[in-house]
Amino acid sequence: VSSVVREAMMVGLGGRWRAAGVGLRGGWRGGSGSPRWGEEDGARSRVAAENLGGRSQAAFGRVELTSAGGDDAVVRKVGAEGTTLWAVRGGGTGADELHAVAADGTGSVVAAGYRGLVWKISAEGTTLWAVRAGGTSTADELVGVAVAGAGAVVAAGYFSSSLATFGGEVLTKAGSYDAVLWKVSAEGTTL
Questions:
Q1: The dihedral of CA 134, 138, 144, 145: what is its sign?
Q2: What is the spatial distance between Cα 9 and Cα 7, in angstroms, rounded to a whole number?
Q3: Phi and psi torsions of 11, nearest 5°
Q4: CA pair distance 86, 92, nearest whole angstrom
Q5: What distance separates the 2 farthest-apart alpha carbons in the chain?
Q6: What are phi and psi of 54, to 5 degrees?
Q7: What is the DSSP letter of 12?
Q8: How far apart are CA 8 and CA 27, in angstroms?
């Protein structure tokens, strides 16, 4: 098992583990309703993945966000002094929760969550890409994420759909919930 896979799996299990010399940047899960924090190198800033919690509006420092409905996903970057540098909202009218977040060495941020979502945001807070995977079940979730040195993203999670699609790969469920590791390139395509 590679160190990138171990990182994503440990993040998904709620632990924090770093492999020396691999250049991984992993995020971890918080408790129910709390932000999931990840670290960013260099500027001592931190990134958080959280949810609007059904609120129609929320303020993160000077940044105000309006929900599209349901429980929208939010990713925000907080500077070393604790002020929100930027915050972005994603999602539609249903639930769009995030479970994990990580930053790479360039300041870009990746988040993973509900219904197999992987979302990449630039260091300036602009969405670069978002991809979804899984099947028809709402219990198909990615709960851990890590970034490899080349910018590839590894997400760990589980699915309960009979058939779940991750990129071009279709997986068939063998039990109640089956574990999955999904590797996505820095550009958002399945590897």
A1: positive
A2: 5
A3: -60, -45
A4: 20
A5: 48
A6: 85, -5
A7: H
A8: 9
Residues whose CB is less than 8 angstroms from the CB of residue 65 and which lie 6 or more positions away in sequence, other chains included: 52, 57, 58, 59, 72, 74, 87, 88, 89
Q: Find residue 39's DSSP bridge partners.
A: 46
Contact criterion met (CB below 8 Å) for 98 and 73:
yes
Beta bridge partners of 141: 114, 158
Condensed to tens digits (0 to 9), the pLDDT of residues 41-100 reads: 555 667 777 777 777 877 777 788 887 877 778 888 888 777 888 888 887 777 778 888
Segment 160-163 long-range contacts (CB within 8 Å, at least 24 positions apart): 161/134, 161/135, 161/136, 161/137, 162/135, 163/135
Other Cβ atoms within 10 Å of 16 Cβ, number? 14
Residue for token pair 């998904």: 12
Q: Which amino acid makes up residue 182?
A: W
- In angstroms, rounded to a whole number, what is the distance separating the alpha carbons of residues 127 and 134? 21
Other C-beta atoms lying within 10 Å of the C-beta of residue 110: 31
DSSP result, 92-156: -SS---EEEEEE-TTS-EEEEEBTTEEEEE-TTS-EEEEEE-B-S-TT-EEEEEEE-TTS-EEEE
Of 120, 121, 137, 181, the C-alpha closest to 156 is: 181
The pTM of this model reads 0.78
